Amino acid sequence: MIIGSHVSFKKDTQLVGSVKEALSYGSTTFMFYTGAPQNTNRQPIDNKLTNEGKELMIKNNIDINNVIVHAPYIINMASNNDFAVTFLKEELKRVEKLGMTKLVLHPGSSVKLSKDEGIKNIIDNLNKVGKSKVTILLETMAGKGTELGSSFEEIKQIINGVDYELGVCLDTCHINDAGYDISNFDDVLKQFDEIIGLKYLKCVHINDSKNLINTHKDRHENIGFGTLGFNNLIKIIYHDKLKDIPKILETPYVTIDDNSKERMYPPYKFEIEMILNKEFDYDLLNKIRAYYK
Ligand code: FE
Ligand code: FE
Ligand code: ZN
Questions:
Q1: H-type helices in the chain, by residue range?
Q2: Angle, CA 57 vertex, CA 53 and CA 244 arms, to 5°
Q3: Between the N and C ends of the chain, which has fewer C-beta atoms within 10 Å?
């Protein structure tokens, strides 16, 4: 089982810190942003910390090809400005320097443009960025606001327009919110295969959703505590056709009210345990709170 979660990538520990965090959750892979997800301030990659991280990965059988980097979500490839292109080029160099091979990217938002203009910009901008050793994985989006890439058809349109090979990252919360019925996942996968092609699928984000199907919200929920439910998610996680694909949890941190000061703790160690047990624990969130108290 190739499973892990989003982990932090801190200034002073960089990759080795991320690997340690992933291991503390019992993960066999992980995903990180090379800086804060909501901004584009990035510091140079430290070779020493990278090598320490890689050694730790080898020692613990984490395959570097299963590790995912996520591009900051504020860059908008559907816009007309060159900043997104310049930034993505730099980001790809950082990912290459770290030795990772997969970068997840939100396709972009059309904002005031039409859908078609937005998609054309994404294609043009990705062609300007150009081919690298790193595969860019377009994430399937919830369709919140003017987000593009909330249907398999739109993802396919982008893949077809770009002159080098892209991949896809399927997010379970997002596709539910976009209108795909997760409870009939075989059918969703069949549609994915017919429209995009299963060989493009390189990563799955495993999240429950706070919202009903087709609501276009994008609010993640802890595994089994949302509208998708534990059994549907287990079927996806253990699906035969997704066996070799990394699965990444991006579920929300659990909050603890501590003298009216709110603290947040990662649920991943517990969620991964529950997934490996294949049995839903109704009391999981309280157990997490008790563990960190
Ligand atoms: Fe994402
Ligand atoms: Fe995601
Ligand atoms: Zn999301």
A1: 14-24, 47-59, 83-98, 115-129, 152-161, 172-178, 185-195, 230-237, 268-277, 284-292
A2: 135
A3: C
- Cα 237 to ligand 3 centroid, rounded to whole Å: 18
Ligand whose nearest atom lies closest to the CA of 177: 3
Span 115-135, pLDDT tens digits: 999 999 999 999 999 999 999
Cα 110 to ligand 2 centroid, rounded to whole Å = 19
Please tell me the distance between residue 280's alpha carbon and the centre of ligand 1 in angstroms: 25
In 188-244, the DSSP E strands lie at 201-206, 208-209, 220-221
Distance 259 CA to ligand 3 centre (A): 30
pLDDT over 80 at 260, yes or no: no
Residue pair 221/208 in contact (Cβ under 8 Å)? The answer is yes
Strands 247-249 and 3-6: parallel
Question: Which ligand has the shortest distance to the CA of 170?
Answer: 2
pLDDT at 40: 87
The pTM of the whole model exceeds 0.85: yes
Going from the Cα of 252 to the center of ligand 2, the distance in angstroms, rounded, reads 12
| Ordered domains of the chain (ranges, CATH) | 3-252 (3.20.20.150)
The helix (H) or strand (E) run that includes residue 247 is strand 247-249
pLDDT (tens digit per residue) in 185-212: 999 999 999 999 999 999 999 999 999 9
How large a percentage of the chain has pLDDT more than 90? Answer: 92
193 CA distance to ligand 3 middle (Å): 22
